[in-house]
Amino acid sequence: MRVTQLRLYPVKSLGGMDVESARIEPWGIEGDRRWGLVDPSGEKVTAREEHALLRLRAQQVDEETIRIHDGGESILVDIPLGLPPIPVSHARQGFAPPADLDVSEWISDRVGRPLRLVWQEDPRMRRMSGAHGGLDGDTLSLADAGPLLMTSQSSLAQLQEWVDQRAEEEGEMVTGEHSVGGRQPVDMIRFRPNVVIDGGAAFAEDAWSTVRIGDVEFRTAEVCDRCVMTTIDPDTQATGKEPVRTLARHRAWEGKTWFGTRLVPLGAGELHVGDEVLPGV
Question: In angstroms, what CA-CA distances link 49 with 39, 113, 142, 145?
Fold first, then answer.
């Protein structure tokens, strides 16, 4: 098995970027989800509620700078210096310093509502929840529940087969270029993984207690529960029923649907596209 894709998301809920290599820190990929968005009251805002966020894409420029793109326009964003933190509702975060006001206004204009861009200054301060497999000392970025998300192309191929089968059974027609179902591809990007692997049996990753990717060892914290985010087309922001509807038929337990695994680094190092993937027991 090999790594086929590495992806990071500098801003939580914005589009991300593919990379050929990524440095692994205790809280995840370097630069991944260190920025997030809140409303004027400090309540976190994600693409679950505000689909328009997916129209924007964030790119890591260097350790202190990102660039946010909206089609042909973009804006540079520097790490806040000297700005007092504001209250934020990200679980176990509490406060975060905001970006310059002109950046937040630029984003607000494009999304159509007032938003503030905030930066996680120190991910070592955000404890990973034990309810999601966190152990003492585990920390994470502004990601929902785990430092990294790994998905498998073998598992996606099986899901695609199930989606196609259901569409055929129900006589569904493809209604648009980006439709899911009717033998239209389920794009892996809907699941927003950090690491995509290929090879092995579908959903074999569910049972791995540990996995070595390249020279870095990881612990599996949990299988990842999936939400409405996966039903939003990342290109058009249109919503549908898939792939959650088909996951609910084949991959449902505890009242949720499941795809991918959340990983916790057990050491530092660097991942590369093409790295060997060796599951533990």
Answer: 12, 12, 17, 18
- Asked if 114 and 160 count as a contact pair (C-beta separation under 8 A), the reply is no
CA separation for the pair 25, 264 (Å, rounded): 10
Q: What is the pLDDT of residues 174-201, one digit of tens each?
A: 444 444 544 568 999 999 999 999 999 9
The answer, as to whether pTM is greater than 0.85, is: yes
Q: Which residue has the tokens 């059974």?
A: 169
Please, are residues 178 and 236 in contact by the beta-carbon 8 Å criterion?
Answer: yes
Q: Report how far residue 100's alpha carbon sits from residue 65's, in angstroms, rounded to the nearest whole number.
A: 13
Q: Read off the pLDDT band of 234 (50, 70, 90).
A: confident
d(CA 30, CA 159): 30
CA dist., res. 124 & res. 225, Å (int): 24
Contact yes or no for 274/2 (Cβ under 8 A): yes
Domain ranges for the chain, please list them: 2-130, 148-279
- Other C-beta atoms within 10 Å of 21: how many? 12
3-state secondary structure 128-187: CCHHHCCCCCCECCCCCCCCEEEEEHHHHHHHHHHHHHHHHHHCCCCCCCCCCECCECCC
